[in-house]
Amino acid sequence: MTKNELIVKVAKKSNLTKSAASDCVNSTFNLIRDTLVKGEKVVITGFGTFLIRSRAARRGRNPQTGETIQIPNKKLPGFTAGKTLKRLIK
């Protein structure tokens, strides 16, 4: 499902215009993004948790030269599905 398909489905389910549904969906995504940027996690009960994960620094290898390189640590967004969502997908 694409973002546009999500907007259309939200508009139909909630009897909103496509423009209003677009504002709702975009606002939700922006709030999740802004909260993650602050370093906080977002817990949506029955759905899952969005959080920031840290990947430790490690050694890697340049595939072209075979040279060993140091890969720095970094932060990545992550999602963990909640119990309810996991049960529904089974």
From TrEMBL:
It comes from the Bacteria. GO terms for biological process: chromosome condensation. Keywords: DNA condensation, DNA-binding. The keyword DNA-binding applies. Pfam families: Bac_DNA_binding (PF00216). InterPro entries: Hist_DNA-bd, Histone-like_DNA-bd_CS, IHF-like_DNA-bd_dom_sf. GO terms for molecular function: DNA binding; structural constituent of chromatin. PROSITE patterns: HISTONE_LIKE. Belongs to the bacterial histone-like protein family. This is DNA-binding protein. It comes from Candidatus Daviesbacteria bacterium RIFCSPLOWO2_01_FULL_39_12.
